[in-house]
Amino acid sequence: MKIDLLITNCAVLPVPGRETLITPGFVAIGFSKILLAGPMAECPAAGTGTVLDGQGQLALPGLVNGHCHAPMTLFRGLADDLDLATWLYGHIFPAEARQVNPEMVYWCSKLAAAEMLLSGTTTVADGYFLEDEVARACAETGLRCVAAQAVIDFPAPGAEDPKRNIEVAACFLERWQGRDPLITPAVFAHSPYTCTNTTLRRAKELTRKFQVPFFIHAAETKEEHKQIAEPLAPTPIGHLEALGILDRDTVCAHCVWANERDLDCLAERGASVVTCPQSNAKLASGQAPLTPLLQRGLRVALGTDSAASNNSLDLFREMDFAAKIHKINPCNPVAIPARRLLEIATWGGADALALGAGQGTLTPGAPADLILVDLQQPHLQPFHSPNLLVYSRAAADVRTVIVNGQLVVANRKLLTIDLRETCRQVRKLAGG
Amino acid sequence: MKIDLLITNCAVLPVPGRETLITPGFVAIGFSKILLAGPMAECPAAGTGTVLDGQGQLALPGLVNGHCHAPMTLFRGLADDLDLATWLYGHIFPAEARQVNPEMVYWCSKLAAAEMLLSGTTTVADGYFLEDEVARACAETGLRCVAAQAVIDFPAPGAEDPKRNIEVAACFLERWQGRDPLITPAVFAHSPYTCTNTTLRRAKELTRKFQVPFFIHAAETKEEHKQIAEPLAPTPIGHLEALGILDRDTVCAHCVWANERDLDCLAERGASVVTCPQSNAKLASGQAPLTPLLQRGLRVALGTDSAASNNSLDLFREMDFAAKIHKINPCNPVAIPARRLLEIATWGGADALALGAGQGTLTPGAPADLILVDLQQPHLQPFHSPNLLVYSRAAADVRTVIVNGQLVVANRKLLTIDLRETCRQVRKLAGG
């Protein structure tokens, strides 16, 4: 067992929601993988590996953000407190038409990646135009990314002629497949109301050919089904089913307005769902049926959506919000406990994104994507339970971040990029 | 104009929700008051005063936490994901019976005060037993506190004989009235279901005599009215009205289950309300009718409730949660915009607690309670709007805190107490 990095004397939460805290414990990392995690009494010798003293900290798998549009960080706070249609057609689409270009996508994705890493996210599933620049920015910053090239039947940056959108996506997949250990290329068909049936079918065909995930916004708002040009069923999920698009590699973002039949259909096909409760709340789109989704055994990830509709990319806050809102409506305080959110935000989310086995855990062989949270902060005292990771803010308490075995954040400092320069570039793009 | 402290080159939000950002600006402080705030072009000379360079930071009034039980910080995460009755009778009351004593109240209140200051809260309204120790801890830590001695018709710490509870409260008011500029003593009658009608009347009489606020938990759960021993009306608010308790110095916490008639009654009497959305959600108590409350012009504050039911005392997060959940149910994205929450969490809350004029603003003559937020953090880029204070996490970005003109937090370090020792004491009390 050749150890590259050994973290000692920390508390360890190896499989959030399933296993309890090991304290004091260790995590041994080698060849970009978790070699072993356990109690200090069983800690191996570091050999020539680096030792990191984790005293007073808690090691857990890095968080998995299942739905994001990193470049839209440029629009953070640009248009708040509006409904989805006004927000999208009145503000975001016009701003995108003016401002989206490769430089914008690159710098804003770098900023988003920095924000995510500094708040404990080690994997993001992103979908946007000019996704090459998102992939490049994430790879440089050290964030694992399922980078999905957007397909939409409007003229879009990088695919000014919508007829070429599938071809653009195909080239993207070719460029990125097998190129970087941090990047999994994929396709993001924007939605059933912005893509024709032909485009949706062709996009799914393409992802089947490349064996990569297919992402789509689905059933986000109550009005969505009315906006589908040639609906094949009375609901957006039914429409996707009729198109033959739902399978285990299809990831549906939102599913706020999925009815019982839709949920059964998703479960039967093995499609997964990303819930984005804060974005859905802020845009007043509604609240996804998370309890019924989980009851059906569907694979579910948690997503922040973009910083333009959230307005942060902090998955700790997303867990907290999700755990709390799903208790209000059914008036059921045990509806979705905190530990369930910790599952969803780690290995559950990784499974929903069809990432490799073990991902989102600290079990041997899993990719070494983990974070250390400072347990000495006043708002985490006394630390009666890992529930506090959900119910007390913890994003700013992430001190150390390791992705694919590499130290990316140490003592809250991002080691990979010049953060000040990145912020400066984004402010310049924002006109500030 | 004798300046003690001059903050320069910062952005300034003098009256959150009403006035827009002044940038670059200054804030001049003297004699524990705001002397003036405005654009840098009008900045006076500091004279012999200290100058603090606020470059890259935003000055705004410190936040007002309208409802807290600081000592219960000991129970943070002790019993999560339970309904109010199980949580209270099965876990919290037994833990309190075992653990509440002056030492516990003192140390846990110090920790709570530290957490609040470090997350930008400069005033708290607290209610608990042995409230002297809360007041002492807050005064030492430098947090402004409306300290309300609890009255309950059970044997309680410091009032083992419930017959003496009003006398205990009276002695508390005598001890603290006019004693410390940071402390406003008050009375907190626990609830209509734990206090007899006689106790409620006598407690209100006492606060009228001393001209101090009267706090009470009211209409927190759907079942509450059934638990009132001798109900005088069909709702808890109606009950309080029948007892003659509602007036401008009565502060009702929660009001989740207040019906239209209750709201009209509260408005007519000028009573104020503290809403605690995260605690109400986590305990599945429900969601307060915040929009109707505001529509009636009621004075409303925002509260975290205790760390045992939240589980943090971060009012920034509370604003975010409140702004978002009140958009879901009516499916109305403009229901309560972010700027309205900024009002409620500052001068609106101060008004609801009947604090002095100007409190919660940076207008001349207001007590100098203010915070500086670091705008350089990645999750606040680009800073299109002060809405980001609500919608992107900002608690950990509070760099500087000034209460009553005194520097309490500088560069995120608490200057007033030994935080490490406080945490150690609390962990010891928690048995860890």
Please characterize this protein's 3D structure.
The structure is a homodimer of 432-residue chains. By secondary structure, chain A is α/β, with parallel strands linked by helices. Chain A folds into two domains: 5-62 and 360-411, Urease, subunit C, domain 1 (Roll); 66-352, Metal-dependent hydrolases (TIM Barrel, Alpha-Beta Barrel), CATH 3.20.20. Chain A is 33% helix and 22% strand. Chain A is built from 13 helices and 17 strands. In chain A, the strands form two sheets. In chain A, strands 1, 2, 3, 4, 5, 14, 15, 16 and 17 form a nine-stranded mixed sheet that branches. An eight-stranded parallel sheet of chain A has the order 6-7-8-9-10-11-12-13. In chain A, helix 2 crosses helix 13 and helix 10 crosses helix 11. The radius of gyration of chain A is 21 Å and the shape is globular. The mean pLDDT of chain A is 96. At the A-B interface, helix 2, helix 8, helix 10 and helix 13 of A face helix 2, helix 8, helix 10 and helix 13 of B.
- Shape annotation of chain A: globular
State the total count of DSSP E strands of chain A: 17
Share of residues in helices of chain A: 25-40%
The most extensive contact between chains is:
A-B, 75 and 74 residues
CATH superfamily of the largest domain in chain A: Metal-dependent hydrolases
Task: Tell me which CATH architecture of the largest domain in chain A applies here.
Answer: Alpha-Beta Barrel
What is the CATH T-level topology of the largest domain in chain A?
TIM Barrel
Quaternary: homodimer
Structural class of chain A: alpha/beta
Taken together, the total number of domains of chain A comes to 2
Work out the radius of gyration of chain A.
21 Å
| Mean of all residue-level pLDDT scores of chain A | 96
- Rounded to the nearest angstrom, the distance between the terminal CA atoms of chain A is 52 Å
Q: Tell me about the largest β-sheet of chain A.
A: 9 strands, mixed
Question: How do the SSEs of chain A run, as a string of H and E?
Answer: EEEEEEHHEHEHEHEHEHEHHEHHEHEEEH
Number of helices of chain A: 13
Low-confidence stretches of chain A: none
The proportion of strand residues of chain A reads: 15-25%
The CATH class name of the largest domain in chain A reads Alpha Beta
